[in-house]
Design goal:
Layout lengths: L7 E4 L5 H12 L3 E5 L13 H12 L3 E5 L6 H15 L4 E3 L15 H31 L6 E6 L2 H4 L7 H21 L4 E8 L4 H4 L5 H5 L16 H8 L9 E5 L2 E4 L17 H7 L2
Parallel strand pairs: 1-2, 1-4, 2-3, 4-5, 5-6, 6-7
Antiparallel strand pairs: 7-8
Helix pairs in contact: 1-9, 3-4, 4-6
Bound molecules: nicotinamide-adenine-dinucleotide.
The site of nicotinamide-adenine-dinucleotide (NAD) has 32 residues, from helix 1, helix 4 and helix 7.
Keywords: Oxidoreductase
Protein name: SDR family oxidoreductase
GO molecular function, one term: oxidoreductase activity
């Protein structure tokens, strides 16, 4: 028995890195997987059907079920096609793993408009696009009396939730938005039987290998037989658990790296000052710092 037997999952950006590991594990655990990947560069330029198809071939060679989708999740219709393909190929949809991502780092004072737009489009809008079309299907199922036991796992980042990273204003803002989107979606979609959680992973992939300061740490050789704490495969068991029909969790964000999983807490009051009437600016200046 696999933990995901009979479930149908769409995994975005699953041609490489962390998403590829999700797809391989999901298929080993019995899920039918739509492997989405645009196949572009780190910066999201170009397209190639190869990465998604290679993962599908690998899954099928091992006896699993998968189909490839090389659409762009940043496009409304690309996300609609992805959801439609899951329904056409496998007859249902139980899980969305939003994972596709790019980087176009730069410092604020010199960031180009396209660097901002491209990163927001792939991460923030790309997550929303797939969530939106899947939610419409799950709502329809629920209204028809077939209450889903569905799960969405989004991909945030330390850059957006715990570790502000100079040079990643576009990426950090998108990832913080994804964490917020996760909480709103968990509230909203519970009535349709949909749980929504997010992860903030850390692993060796082409994205981190190309990140200044991180590449060398992540590329270090791991002696034979030792636990590879930066392997992208370390991220997938948590995502698979969150995707099971037995998992009760929703509205959570987890940091995950190597052998560690941490539940993260969001914004909360740390200090309150009050007045009985309108504030004077000087009162605030005297009491807030
Ligand atoms: N690797 C880390 O340590 C780390 C840390 C924090 C967050 N993340 C996040 O994890 C996710 C996976 O990243 P990764 O490190 O495995 O990188 P990766 O580059 O290995 O994989 C990302 C995949 O997404 C695909 N993709 C990009 N734009 C797409 C689009 N518009 N439509 C469909 N597919 C698209 C790429 O072709 C690529 O194969 C990303 O969301 C990333 O921001 C990774």
């Amino acid at each position: 028995m696999g933990a995901l037997d009979g479930r149908v999952a769409v995994i975005t950006g699953a041609g490489r890195g962390i998403g590829r590991e999700h797809a391989l594990l999901f298929a080993r655990e019995g899920a039918s997987v739509v492997v989405n990947d645009l196949g572009g560069s780190n910066a999201g330029e170009g397209a190639d059907t190869g990465p998604a198809q290679d993962v599908v071939d690998e899954i099928r060679a091992a006896g699993g079920k998968a189909v490839a989708n090389s659409g762009n999740v940043a496009l409304w219709d690309g996300a609609q096609n992805l959801v439609d393909q899951a329904l056409a190929e496998f007859g249902r949809l139980d899980v969305v793993v939003n994972n596709a991502g790019i980087l176009r780092d730069g410092f604020i004072a010199s960031l180009e408009e396209l660097q901002w737009d491209a990163v927001i489009a792939v991460h923030l809008k790309g997550h929303f696009n797939v969530l939106r079309h899947a939610a419409a299907y799950w709502k329809q199922e629920s209204k028809a009396g077939r209450q889903p036991q569905a799960a969405v796992v989004n991909t945030a980042s330390a850059s957006g939730v715990t570790l502000p990273n100079a040079g990643q204003v576009n990426y950090g803002a998108a990832k913080a938005g994804i964490a917020a989107m996760t909480l709103v979606a968990a509230e909203e979609l519970e009535r349709y039987g949909v749980r929504v959680n997010a992860i903030a992973p850390m692993a060796r992939t082409r994205l981190t290998l190309a990140t200044p300061g991180m590449g060398a740490i992540f590329a270090a050789e791991v002696p034979e037989g030792e636990f590879d704490a930066f392997s992208p495969a370390n991220i997938s068991p948590l995502v698979a658990y969150l995707a099971t029909d037995k998992c009760p969790l929703t509205g959570k964000v987890f940091a995950v790296q190597g052998g560690a999983i941490s539940e993260l807490g969001g914004w909360h009051d740390v200090k309150t000052i009050e007045t009985d009437g309108p504030w004077e600016i000087d009162d605030i200046a005297g009491r807030l710092p």
